[in-house]
Amino acid sequence: MNQDSVKIFEMSPRDGLQNEPVSIPTDAKIKLVNLLSKCGFSHIETTSFVSPKWVPQLADGDAVMAGIARQPNISYAALVPNMNGFERAVAAGADQIGIFAAASESFSQKNINCSIAQSLDRFESVMVAARTHKIAVRGYISMVVYCPDEGQIAPRIVANLAARMMDMGCYEISLGDTVGMAEPDEIRRLLDVCVRSVDGQYLAGHYHDTSGYAGANIRASLPYGLRCFDASVGGLGGCPYAPGAAGNVASEAVAHMLAGAGFATGLDLDALGVAAEFATSLRGLTPSPLTSS
Questions:
Q1: pLDDT value at position 108?
Q2: pLDDT tens across 201-231, in order?
Q3: Would you state the pLDDT for residue 181?
Q4: What local confidence, expressed as pLDDT, does residue 153 receive?
Q5: What distance, in Å, lies between the first and last C-alpha atoms of the chain?
Q6: Cα–Cα separations (whole angstroms), residue 241 to 31, 33, 115
Q7: The Cα angle at residue 253 between residues 100 and 264, in degrees rounded to 5
Q8: What is the mean predicted confidence (pLDDT) over 179-198?
Q9: CA torsion through residues 128, 177, 262, 42, sign
Q10: Which of 216, 211, 249, 247 has its CA nearest to residue 230?
Q11: DSSP strand E in 189-227: where?
Q12: Which residue in 30, 90, 24 sits closest to 55, CA to CA?
């Protein structure tokens, strides 16, 4: 990817749908992925293979992966928590996987029922298996700026965790402002530290728009060399810590913003609009553009 290009990593089928309270039919999930496949995305996070007890919305991950019309040059990704999830993802034909840790001990316990150190230990066997199967692994870190239980997160914790996950073999680390409270100055303070351990080209921004700062946080990240940002068509996926509030930033809004700033995304904006309209119909939302915060 050249310097003037930015990749939008599409999250709606997984992160967008996982917290929806009403069960979304498998056929609708397949249709969403197929619409996204026409937009020009190179990466679509299609589902996760976690315990259905924890994420019942994505219990049909195998059926979704089997039902989509795969297109060449698109990596259909799946999130996995452990070896069991990895084996299911491989069997379902996932092109790449994601592993997820947290910069907050309390959130790590709540989200994956183990400490940060234990989560990394669990991933060691997954990384070995991924190398054997020649499957790329993307790393995710949640709560990189603020945790509702612990307050402000020290940037050094995030930087050390990102470096550790890169050393394990991840090709990229997605930094998640999970509660969407970070402002641009806080993102800059985070990246000031992180890029000393992991070059910006290997980092991605996963900035929720709960407080309306996602667009500004993306712009603040570009000078640090970040050229990948996670987003979800139609802004699908709210914030689990602020019911009714915005969560994922809308892919179409990010694409328009980046185009205005002179960056190419390779996305078909008309096809993106069609996908966004369908995505919002799944929960009856009206997507809003990025704020100028």
A1: 77
A2: 999 999 999 999 999 999 999 999 999 999 9
A3: 92
A4: 96
A5: 28
A6: 28, 26, 20
A7: 85
A8: 97
A9: positive
A10: 249
A11: 203-207
A12: 24
Directed axis angle between helix 155-168 and helix 116-133, to 10°?
Answer: 30
Reported as a single tens digit per residue, the pLDDT across 1-18 is: 445 999 999 999 999 999
Tokens at 101, concatenated: 């840790």
The answer to whether 51 and 18 have CB atoms below 8 angstroms apart is: no
Tell me which amino acid residue 122 is.
Answer: R
What are the structural domain ranges in the chain?
7-281
CA distance 268 to 265: 9
R_g (Cα) of the chain, nearest Å: 17
Catalytic residues: 239
Q: Are 198 and 142 in contact (CB under 8 A)?
A: no
Tally the C-alpha atoms within 13 A of residue 173's C-alpha that lie toward its C-beta. 29
Q: For the chain, how long is the longest CA-to-CA vector?
A: 46
In the predicted model, is pLDDT for residue 149 greater than 80? yes
Q: CA 221 to CA 212: how far, in whole Å?
A: 16
Using the predicted structure, report yes or no on whether residue 242 has a pLDDT greater than 70. Answer: no
Question: Which CATH number does 7-281 carry?
Answer: 3.20.20.70
**pLDDT on residue 88:** 97
> What DSSP designation does 16 have?
I
